[in-house]
Every structure is written in structure tokens, then in C-alpha cells.
Design goal:
The chain is α/β, with parallel strands linked by helices. The protein is 43% helix and 21% strand. It has helices at 12-24, 38-53, 92-109, 122-133, 145-160, 199-210, 212-220, 227-241, 286-306; strands at 3-8, 27-32, 59-62, 73-76, 114-117, 140-142, 167-168, 171-172, 180-181, 187-188, 191-192, 246-255, 261-272, 275-279. Adenosine-5-diphosphoribose (APR) binds at residues 8-14, 33-35, 77-79, 81-82, 95, 98, 101-102, 118-120, 223-224, 226, 229.
């Protein structure tokens, strides 16, 4: 039987993700939204691209959670995106209500699913979904680090005229202004970037990475990024569905790793058929550890705002 993936929210991130998933041709995909008829229309359009592109994925749009039943993976993208000048944190109360209601329904209809959270503010929303779902930690994962790392890799590759494939990097911590791009561990074809770029240029690229989401929000005028976010979720789904055991930075519930407990923080994890199968502890220097702690403290503040 084919795997089943549900995407909640058929907006920019959700529908772009459904397109990418359908084109993978490894699962049937259900797209849920509260707007009547809209997900059905988008699903039909995507289904009709199948004969041209050669995929058989069954794409269904719905306003009824019953159609999402028994999904293997559920990706939550529903919520309001940022507007110019609005921080991810301003979104918190608005999206708390939506994510609470969505998670309750997902748990009811797909009790064995693996949840991937995309809605911002990511670190708060993934913590909320964990709290509401009662799922074990391996089945609740937040998408942030893959995207932040992709942004960092893009800028480094551009700077050096290198292939993005040759640039390896890790961005840890929260998906916000306190994210921690580990410049020390960034390499281009195995060569540390400290040997390729002056420290001040690296710092500028780190800052651009931190502001990466806001830069796009400002340019778009309305809405936020969706091509790179949906690609980032796709990589996570690939690793889970195909049990590839890829290691990538994701928001994971820490239970002692990195000296932290009971909190979602962006760290390298192994993704496989069971979801988040292992937290990988990389050795951090004192400065990096302090930055990660600062980032975790910022996430704690958000959680306080939600009152959970
Ligand atoms: N249940 C299901 N869908 C909902 C609900 C709900 N309770 N409330 C809102 N939605 C839907 C909206 O109808 C809309 O179609 O969520 C969708 C969100 O889509 P967009 O507004 O296009 O936002 P998008 O750019 O996709 O971003 C979604 O991902 O990256 C994050 O910050 C971003 O939190 C935002 C989320």
C-alpha cells in the first residue's frame, strides 16, 4: 500500500509542498484547509499535472479531517504568515489557536503519524503540538534548521562561486534572531570557510542568514517565503519515508542532550522511519554553547507567552 501524507494548510507553503511531494511519486497526498473548495481545486490541478510529469500520486483536497485518517506523516503549515515589520513572535497568539485545534484533529484521525511542524513561530508551535498531541518525542519534529542552513549555504556558495552541493553547514538553535550558524563547522568541499573567507565577511553572511526570512518578507510585501521552506520539508519527508537516516538540523525535544531538557531546540538529528531517531551531539565551543543557550532561553520566553 502507498504511504499517505497529509498537509494541513493549502496556502503558499502547503500547496508548494504538496506539488513537490506529488512529483516524488512515493505517496498519496491529502491537502486540508478550512477555506471551502480551495484545497479541492488545487488538488485537482495538481492531479492533472500527473500525466504530464509522469506521477501517479493521488492528490486529494478536503475540508474534512476524516479524509486525512491514518496518515503516516502530517505536515502542519496552517496559520498566518508574517507581514512586513512583524516578527515571528508577534504571530504567536494567532497561530496558537489554529495549531491547537489542528493538532487535536490530527491526533484523533492519525494517532500513529509523525508530525512535522512548519507554522511560525516554529519553536513555540512545535512545543505546542508536542504538548497537545501527547506523541512521543520521536514523532514530533520542527522544520527550521534545514531552511536556515540552506540559506547559509546559498550565501556561502554565491560568495565563493562554489556549488551549493559542496557547501556543508549547520545552523542550530531557534528559528529566529537567535539562531546559531556554526561557521566553524562550515566547509566547502571539506575546506573550512575560515580558510576561504575573512572573519568579518563570514560574520556578515551569518547576519544575512539570521535575517534571511525577513529579507524575503520585505521583498514580497505580502506573505513569507515558501519555495525554500517547502523544499526543506521535502528533504525531511524523504529521509523519514525512505528511511534514509539522513542527519539534518531540526527542532527536536531535548531530554538532556546539549545540557537542555523538556524543550524543542534546533539540533542535528537523524531522521528515519521512526521519525526523529537520534539527537546528534556535536562538540560546541564555549561561545557556541552560550549562543545556543541564549537561543533556548528565547524559545522559553515564547513558551511562557503561550501559557503551556
Ligand atoms: N485549519 C486549517 N487551515 C487553516 C486554518 C485552520 N484552522 N487556519 C488557517 N488555515 C490556512 C489558511 O486558510 C491558509 O490557506 O492556512 C493557510 C496558510 O497559508 P498562507 O496564508 O499562504 O501562509 P504560508 O505562506 O503558506 O505560511 C504558512 O508557514 O512558514 C510558515 O510563517 C509561515 O506560519 C506560516 C506558515
Amino acid at each position: 500500500m502507498r504511504s499517505k501524507i497529509t498537509v494541513i494548510g493549502a496556502g503558499f507553503v502547503g500547496s508548494t509542498l504538496v506539488q513537490r511531494l506529488a512529483e516524488r511519486d512515493y505517496a498519496d497526498v491529502v491537502m486540508y484547509d478550512i477555506i471551502p473548495n480551495m484545497p479541492q481545486g488545487k488538488a485537482l490541478d495538481l492531479l492533472q499535472a500527473g500525466p504530464v510529469l509522469g506521477y501517479d500520486s493521488l492528490v486529494t483536497g478536503t475540508n474534512d479531517y476524516a479524509d486525512t485518517a491514518n496518515s503516516d506523516i502530517v505536515v502542519i503549515t496552517s496559520g498566518f504568515p508574517r507581514k512586513p515589520g512583524m516578527s515571528r513572535d508577534d504571530l504567536i497568539k494567532k497561530n496558537q489557536e489554529i495549531v491547537t485545534q489542528v493538532t487535536e484533529n490530527v491526533v484523533k484521525h492519525s494517532p500513529d503519524s509523525i508530525l512535522i511542524m512548519v507554522t511560525n513561530p516554529l519553536d513555540a508551535m512545535v512545543q505546542l503540538a508536542y504538548h497537545i498531541s501527547g506523541f512521543p518525542r520521536n514523532r514530533v519534529i520542527g522544520m527550521a534548521g534545514v531552511l536556515d542552513t540552506a540559506r547559509f549555504r546559498t550565501f556561502i556558495a554565491q560568495e565563493l562561486g562554489a556549488s551549493v552541493r559542496d557547501v556543508q553547514a549547520y545552523v542550530l538553535g531557534g528559528h529566529g534572531d537567535t539562531m546559531v550558524p556554526l561557521a566553524r563547522m562550515c566547509t566547502v568541499a571539506g575546506v573550512p570557510i575560515a580558510q576561504l573567507l575573512p572573519a568579518e565577511r563570514i560574520e556578515q553572511i551569518v547576519q544575512r542568514t539570521r535575517d534571511g526570512g525577513a529579507e524575503i518578507v520585505k521583498l514580497l510585501g505580502t506573505g513569507s517565503a515558501y519555495f525554500a521552506p517547502s523544499a526543506s520539508v521535502l528533504q525531511m519527508v524523504d529521509s523519514i519515508l525512505l528511511d534514509k537516516k539522513m542527519i539534518m538540523p531540526c527542532a527536536a525535544y531535548l531530554q538532556g542532550e546539549y545540557g537542555m531538557r523538556d524543550l524543542f531546540v534546533g539540533v542535528p538529528v537523524k531522521l528515519g522511519a521512526h521519525g526523529m531517531e537520534e539527537v546528534i551531539e556535536v562538540e560546541l565551543d564555549e561561545g557556541e554553547r552560550a549562543q545556543l543557550q541564549k537561543s533556548a532561553d528565547a524559545v522559553k520566553e515564547l513558551i511562557k507567552v503561550m501559557g503551556i
